[in-house]
Every structure is written in structure tokens, then in C-alpha cells.
Amino acid sequence: MGRELTAAVIGASGIGKHHAKWFQRLGCEMGAFAGTSPESVARTAEKLQEMFGFQGTGYPSAEEMFSAGTFDMVSVCSPEPLHYDHFMRALDHGAHVICEKPLVYDPEVSDATMLSRAEEMVEAAEDAERVAAVNTQYVAAVDAFNSMMAERGVDTGSPETFFMQMESRGGAEGTDREQIFIDLGPHPLSVLMGFCGPGHMDESTVSCVVEQKRVDAEFDYVMDGGATCRAHIVCCNRPEGDLIRRFGINDVLVDYEGRNDDQGVYRAYLMHDGEEVCAQDFVEASLEQFVNAVRGEARRPLATAADGLQNLRMQLALLAAAESR
């Protein structure tokens, strides 16, 4: 049996704490995390200790963390404008990298600059022969959907239409309208790619309306083989009431949610026609596939950095074409 892989997380107070938890539960040594101040490090370390008995070291900056040691794997869960720098630093220190979505986003620079940075990240990982992933974990929902339909004898056929509505509590009143799509948009785009495979958006077919708390986009996704899928994506900020989270192809739709099972383990649940199935938590699935790819036990992560680049291209194209209301 090979040695235990070491992992570190940059930004472990939000989604990063779940990256840290799953690294530990997947048999890796969760060695370190980077925060932004001694105070934030102390709070995060206490939380990680409560979650899974963290025994590693917290650092007040990524620079200090990398100066103190090296790691087999690094999760980049820092604010979006820092993704590029932290991703490249991790590669420079020899690590395999999984980056939170979107792969790159910085409203202070042009779309062309963001895409150039994302391309550089993909190329740098390829040159370094490192596994590079983006955590668009809802790609795991595609297998769960297909398994659920197969078990029920439902033949959905090849994807000709795709729909996904994703809502979250979001921020306070006045949440930036573009930020809703930056936060949520990568997920339905990644699920579309999961159903259809490699391809591109036909930008001449785009319709995108951006409202204060809602983004509604439609376009044709052209698969590499030439087939076309008409995609409809809705992302919303819903401060109150039940959240709608729904997706599917060819008018076969499922609702989904995350909650603890009877043993207290967080799971994904898919609902269709009054029936419910339990699936692996999507974040767990994403981290597990990444770790297995690093170990050489999987061909690729759930969503590669190259997938993240294509996702970003579509996301920026939709926003560029958007009509604001």
C-alpha cells in the first residue's frame, strides 16, 4: 500500500471545511490550511477539530503555508479573485489542485483576461503533469439521475433538451445580479456538460435575462459529434420559502436536496413521481474522484480544470449577452 497522501486547503472556513473533512475521511492526511489572520485561523482550527479531529496546522496566509511545507494535494477555496494566484502557487509547489468554481472570476479585469488566466492554469497543470480539477460537484448528479431512471425503466434517450433550476438563499437584499450567476451558474453548466459531453455553446442562439434575483438563460449546446441540445438554465436567490432545485433532460425532471440520512450522514436525495432515491453527497463524490485520480485509481477527476475553462467560457458569454431588467 502506498504512503498516505497529504492535503491542504486554502480558505477552510466556508466550503473549504467540507473539502478538509472529506480529505480526512478519504484516508488522506489533512495537514494544513491557510486563512487570512491569526484570529480566523484560530476559529477555523477549532471548527475543523470539532468536525473531524483536525491535528494539522493553520497559517494566516497561503504564502506562509507553502513556505512551511509541501503537500500532495491542495484545495483552492479562497475568494474568486485569488483563485488564479493560489492555483498557480500550488502547482509551483508540486501539488495536484482542485479549485472551487468558478475556475477564475475577477470583476476588476476583462473577460479576455479571465479566460487567458484560466487557459494558463490548464496549460500549467498539463505541463507539470498534475491532476487539476474544478469543484463543480453537481456533475455527480448525472450518474445519480441515469441510475434512477434505469432502475425505473425510463428511457430518456439522448439529450435534446436540458433544464435546470437552482436556487439558494444567497446574500442580503441587493445581492449583485451578476454574482447570483457567478455563484450558481457553473453548476447547471457543468451538469449540461455531464449529460452531453464535450461541446460548445452556439452564441447566436443565446437568450439571457438578468434580473435582481434571477438569471434565466437559453441557448443551443452543440456536442462534438454535431448533435444539438437546447438548454434552459434558471438561477435564483430566494431569501425565504422552499428552494427549488430541479434538473433533467427531455422533459424528464427530478427534484433534489441534501440532508442527513438516518445515520446522520449527509446525502443527496433525488425525487421523481413521488419516489425518492439516496445518492452519495456530491461534494464527497467530487473530492473522492479527485483523490482517486491523484492515486491513479481513476482516469480523471469528476470535472477537470479544462472542463472549468469551458464552463467559464459559456458563463462569460451568457453574461455578455444578457439583457438586464
Main attributes of the structure:
325 residues; nine-stranded mixed β-sheet; Rossmann fold; six-stranded parallel β-sheet; alpha/beta; Dihydrodipicolinate Reductase, domain 2
Explain this structure.
- By secondary structure, the protein is α/β, with parallel strands linked by helices.
- The chain has 2 domains: 6-135, NAD(P)-binding Rossmann-like Domain (Rossmann fold); 138-324, Dihydrodipicolinate Reductase, domain 2 (2-Layer Sandwich).
- The protein is built from 10 helices and 15 strands.
- It has helices at residues 16-25, 38-52, 62-68, 83-92, 111-128, 140-151, 177-184, 186-196, 282-295, 305-320, and strands at residues 6-10, 29-34, 57-59, 73-76, 96-100, 132-135, 161-168, 199-210, 214-223, 228-237, 245-249, 252-260, 266-272, 275-280, 323-324.
- The strands form 2 sheets. Strands 14-13-12-11-7-10-9-8-15 form a 9-stranded mixed beta sheet. The protein has a 6-stranded parallel beta sheet with strand order 3-2-1-4-5-6, with helices on both faces.
- A hairpin with a 2-residue loop joins strand 13 and strand 14 (275-280).
- Helix 4 runs parallel beside helix 5 (111-128).
Q: Nearest-angstrom radius of gyration?
A: 19 Å
Helix content percent band: 25-40%
Q: What is the H/E order?
A: EHEHEHEHEHEHEHHEEEEEEEHHE
- Per CATH, the superfamily of the largest domain is Dihydrodipicolinate Reductase, domain 2
